[in-house]
Write a structure and sequence with these properties.
alpha/beta, 196 residues, two-stranded antiparallel sheet, globular, 7 helices
Length: 196
């Protein structure tokens, strides 16, 4: 998130972040006192921050994103284009940033909110310039529902704490051996060997 915000302007990218505590991955700070506390993003690129646990705010977030998809779809039809990139190329003065939806700790998010809305979003959002980034901190036998898994375009496996998890994702223990101080290093699952 920080690297993207550093390299792209507000007109180019915006973030919606859903995490455990609604702190925007530490990129938002508490504002207000006692009962009127809200989270204030520390980066201007952050459009909204919600907690997984607040199902009403998560629902509102999905409504905002679905409204944005409908609005973009109407603009694309009027411009006779089929993608966000084509629209931005054709209309460079129209401010339509890429939207990055960050779902931290996907398993907890799914426990609190279920998979249906997320599956719908992942299925159709990419062509509208809306990208969904999900993190998983542990593997289980039911880590990601099949309908969601089918619609995930790219996976990046960062350092893992067990050889078994690395082998389950990469067929090799490579991610287990990554240096924990080399932040951002990881592997993309490919055949026959993962790509670093």
């Amino acid at each position: 998130v920080l690297a993207l915000a550093k390299n792209w302007s507000l007109q180019d990218i915006a973030f919606y972040i859903a995490d455990r505590n609604g702190t925007g991955l530490g990129l938002a700070a508490v504002q207000g006192h006692n009962g009127s506390q809200t989270m204030k993003p520390l980066l201007p690129h952050i459009a909204d921050v919600v907690s997984h646990k607040n199902t009403i705010k998560v629902e509102r977030l999905f409504n905002v994103l679905n409204d944005e998809i409908r609005e973009r779809e109407a603009k694309f039809q009027a411009a006779k284009v089929d993608s966000w990139l084509a629209y931005r190329t054709q209309h460079p003065s129209d401010t339509m940033p890429a939207l990055v939806v960050v779902i931290d700790n996907l398993l907890e998010f799914l426990q609190n909110n279920g998979p249906a809305q997320l599956i719908d979003l992942v299925r159709g959002a990419k062509s509208f310039g809306i990208y969904v980034l999900m993190t998983i901190d542990r593997l289980t036998t039911t880590t990601v529902p099949n309908d969601l898994q089918k619609n995930i375009g790219q996976q990046v496996v960062l350092r893992l704490n067990s050889k078994e998890d690395s082998e389950a994702l990469l067929n090799k223990a490579f991610a287990y051996y990554l240096n924990p101080h080399d932040y951002g290093r990881g592997y993309i699952p490919e055949f026959p060997l993962p790509r670093e």
